[in-house]
């Protein structure tokens, strides 16, 4: 992340802790993003992020904003570990005399983004079902005309129940629905984020020393929010493809190109920017928090308590 030299185990610990803290802090905004992206013309329940959060608290209580958080909290550490380890691996093997060109930095980011979807795709698949369950339930109450006739209201499913059902009906492929769209989102995100962060961070360095903390913090927030907004159209497509439950008036999609075609025809190009500011508000603090954890050296502190091997 920053220029400070950190061992890989410490990076993995820092990344995991940062992910856990970050998810806890910004998950309600992520829930609002999912619900805003999923609502289509004719079934609009929410007008903005704040409207979504207020209505969620009123109908589902405070903890309704954290539907699906357990999935993220469980899987965010292996996701971050894979992403950071992969980025380090590719940067090390692409570097020449310790230096990387912009193209090689982008290639390293591409490799990291490709590797992380192993965990990201099933995590997002389960999270989206849980996050969107409240929107579907609210539609039944407030907009019954959007619900298919004969639909019976059921108790909100758990992540384990959804996993079992997907595995029983479709096998492992059920958990990896939307894999192509996830790749189309995460690979460009990493290609943009890692080089942009590294170069913004370099602007604040003096001599050969590391960049000051505030420079790394701002660089992380700027690079993260920029990359998040840039790939938001693909995030909308991924969210729509991975949503299993819909209202009777809402479109269903057979793939990425079908999703793009129907969104353009029925909702217009602006639909691809749904939830963009929510996504920026989610990603920027996540990377800011990561910089705080790295700066404090939490991973190194924890590793210092491990017994050292005698030479």
From TrEMBL:
One of its GO terms (molecular function) is L-glutamate transmembrane transporter activity. GO terms for biological process: malate-aspartate shuttle. InterPro entries: MCP_transmembrane, Mito_Solute_Carrier. The chain crosses the membrane at residues 12-29, 280-306. Keywords: Membrane, Mitochondrion, Mitochondrion inner membrane, Repeat, Transmembrane, Transmembrane helix, Transport. Pfam families: Mito_carr (PF00153). It is a multi-pass membrane protein. PROSITE patterns: SOLCAR. It is found in: Mitochondrion inner membrane. GO terms for cellular component: mitochondrial inner membrane. It catalyses: L-glutamate(in) + H(+)(in) = L-glutamate(out) + H(+)(out). It comes from the Eukaryota. Solcar repeats lie at residues 6-93, 100-203, 211-300. Belongs to the mitochondrial carrier (TC 2.A.29) family. Mitochondrial glutamate/H(+) symporter. Responsible for the transport of glutamate from the cytosol into the mitochondrial matrix with the concomitant import of a proton. Plays a role in the control of glucose-stimulated insulin secretion. This is Mitochondrial glutamate carrier 1. It comes from Solea senegalensis (Senegalese sole).
